[in-house]
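Journal club prep — side note

Before the paper discussion, L.F. wants everyone to see what a predicted structure for a comparable chain looks like in C-alpha cell form. Sequence:
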Amino acid sequence: MKIDNGQRAEVLIEALPYIQKYYDKIVIVKYGGNAMINPELKRAVMGDLVLLSLIGVKVVLVHGGGPEITEMLNKIGKKSEFVDGLRVTDKETADVVQMVLAGKINKSLVNLLQSLGGKAMGLSGADGGLISAKQLDAKLGYVGEITSVNVQPVLDLLEKGYIPVISTVGCDAEGNVYNINADTAAARIAGVLKAESLINMTDTVGLLEDASDESTLISKIFVSEAQRLVNQGLLSGGMIPKVNCCIEAIRRGVKKVFIIDGRVPHSILIETLTDEGMGTMFVSGEEL
C-alpha cells in the first residue's frame, strides 16, 4: 500500500508526542521468538531500534537464543533436557551457551545494528560484573539465579550513544558461568535502570482472556489483576513466567511493561510511536 506525502506527514505528527515522551528515556527490549529466527523480521526489529536510538531514545537490547543453543547442542550430539521450562545445563552445555549467546548471536546482532546505521556494543552478563549469579537448583546444573546487577557498563555505553546488546549469561565470584533466563534478566536490568518501559517480544499477540481466541486480547492490565490471573491458574504454559517477569519489572520501578507480537514487522514502532499501540500493557495502578 502506497501513501502520499500528506499521509506521511500525518504519521510523523502522530508520532511526535511519543518521541517527546520517550526522548532521553531508557527503553529495554527483550528480543526472542520468531522475530529472532526470521531474517526479514530480524532486520525490521533492528531497524526499529536504530530509529529509536537516532531520535534520542536510550535503547537496550536483551536477547536469549534457545533455538540456536539447541541447534548447536544437536550438532555435537548432545540432547537438550528441560525441567519446568528451564534447560538442564551441565558444564559442557554451559560452555555452548556462552559460545552461542555471547559469541555468535550477540555479535551478529551488533553487526546488523551497525550495518543499518546504528552504534552498538555487545555485552554479556559476565562483562563488568553486569549479572552476578548463583546456582538456582542443583538438578538444573549451571542455571543461574541472579544475585545482583551492575548496570554501570550499560549506562556508560548509553552515555556514549551506543545501543548495548546484552547476552544473558552470568557468573559468580569463582568464575562459574551460568545460563540465565532472558525474561528474568531483562526484568531485573530494566528495574535497576528504572526504565521508562520494557518491551517483551513474543510469538503471541499478548495476554488473552481466552488462550484460544486472539480477539480476547487484554490491551491493558494492572499488576494486581495480572497477579490474580497467575494465582488462580488462569494462565498456561510459557505465558506464566513471562507475566511473572512483567509483574516483577513493574514492582522494581519500570513504569510500563509490554508483551507484543514479534511476528508483526515493526511491532516495536507500532507500540511506542502510535496512538493504537499493540499487545498488552502492564501498569502498576491508575493511569500513568
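L.F.'s comment for the group: The radius of gyration is 19 Å. Keep this in mind when we get to the figures.
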